[in-house]
């Protein structure tokens, strides 16, 4: 097929990401990239998402057309590239997938020994495609370290001079992961101005996230609180974030309220609205509790997420043991997650020990997560690091009260019930004792039926849609393209 020269009355704003829901999602990055471009497109901006090709159900179930095919070298290795476009814009924006046999044709986004080569190929292939076909973006918006080399290569790569004046935006979803590479891998990069090597370097190694922050036009973080925290705790990049603060903006993520809508969510046992939140949640709780052998007459606490240290998941076994080990406590717990093998093993043991009080699903199911949000009375997030957090926003959309540690975006989005107009339960330290004390506060709230119902209705009225956040991104694009 002849390679397509893209033409349009306006230049696209291109979001470049390793994830995009529902194509491929591992965490919040996928949710953001699946939603923000849709809201930008609906607001009138010509928006694309470009990501690696994965062997996923979405790709198999939708129609794609080839818009480019070609080849380039990564070091001494010849690579072939094919770019596919989803034909029907079913996601509300243009979706393009880059396929490179041996590197960008995998089942999962992460977890491979040659991950550096994988994402170098993605970035090189993207820029090769643009320059070969004459595509000229209005803005290239890079998400996390997987796309961190893009601004540097656009501005200092020998083959990409045509893109030198295109502004770039970087969004840091999680600054703990930086894509580190030894300098012996520099040979894999397309040719660049070697006088600029220092822009790639941080502490003697190639650091794609550091390069992204140094070279982008503007960078954003996924909450205002996380922007401040990155200058205090960023896995070695604290000084860099402080140095580049002048070109930064903190913007809290939104949620896609068309997907996360208890009134229309097809994954729920029963739909409900603010006007019937009590009966609606009750019906969903009974359904979930029946499936996992729990008592629907008791309050239900949930955890949904990865079993990772930054999520505080290693605290879960101690939290659960302390709560369910107290025979005076009337409470059921539902856990959905996977990750750390030790946490997984501990959760399985606890589920057997507290059968009838603790339900556990090891793994992830999107539909089950929706049903848990609808059924639960409380959601706990004992995170050590939470750049924005989406689970607390999803829970409130479904009338579920969040119990969160005050960090990052959790601090920004969940004021405590003891604060003016507060609607959540918060705690300070990432230790089991503080989390357990917060759960006991939640049980007191649950027994105050009038206030509990008032807070359920209050959190369902909160507007965490992408409309406000998308408007802030549009302002950034306007400023840097003026």
UniProtKB/TrEMBL annotation:
<dbReference type="Pfam" id="PF00534">
    <property type="entry name" value="Glycos_transf_1"/>
</dbReference>
<dbReference type="InterPro" id="IPR001296">
    <property type="entry name" value="Glyco_trans_1"/>
</dbReference>
<keyword id="KW-0328">Glycosyltransferase</keyword>
<dbReference type="GO" id="GO:0004373">
    <property type="term" value="F:alpha-1,4-glucan glucosyltransferase (UDP-glucose donor) activity"/>
</dbReference>
<feature type="domain" description="Starch synthase catalytic">
    <location>
        <begin position="13"/>
        <end position="240"/>
    </location>
</feature>
<feature type="binding site">
    <location>
        <position position="25"/>
    </location>
    <ligand>
        <name>ADP-alpha-D-glucose</name>
    </ligand>
</feature>
<keyword id="KW-0808">Transferase</keyword>
<dbReference type="InterPro" id="IPR011835">
    <property type="entry name" value="GS/SS"/>
</dbReference>
<dbReference type="Pfam" id="PF08323">
    <property type="entry name" value="Glyco_transf_5"/>
</dbReference>
<feature type="domain" description="Glycosyl transferase family 1">
    <location>
        <begin position="292"/>
        <end position="451"/>
    </location>
</feature>
<dbReference type="GO" id="GO:0005978">
    <property type="term" value="P:glycogen biosynthetic process"/>
</dbReference>
<comment type="similarity">
    <text>Belongs to the glycosyltransferase 1 family. Bacterial/plant glycogen synthase subfamily.</text>
</comment>
<comment type="pathway">
    <text>Glycan biosynthesis; glycogen biosynthesis.</text>
</comment>
<protein>
    <recommendedName>
        <fullName>Glycogen synthase</fullName>
        <ecNumber>2.4.1.21</ecNumber>
    </recommendedName>
</protein>
<comment type="function">
    <text>Synthesizes alpha-1,4-glucan chains using ADP-glucose.</text>
</comment>
<dbReference type="InterPro" id="IPR013534">
    <property type="entry name" value="Starch_synth_cat_dom"/>
</dbReference>
<dbReference type="GO" id="GO:0009011">
    <property type="term" value="F:alpha-1,4-glucan glucosyltransferase (ADP-glucose donor) activity"/>
</dbReference>
<keyword id="KW-0320">Glycogen biosynthesis</keyword>
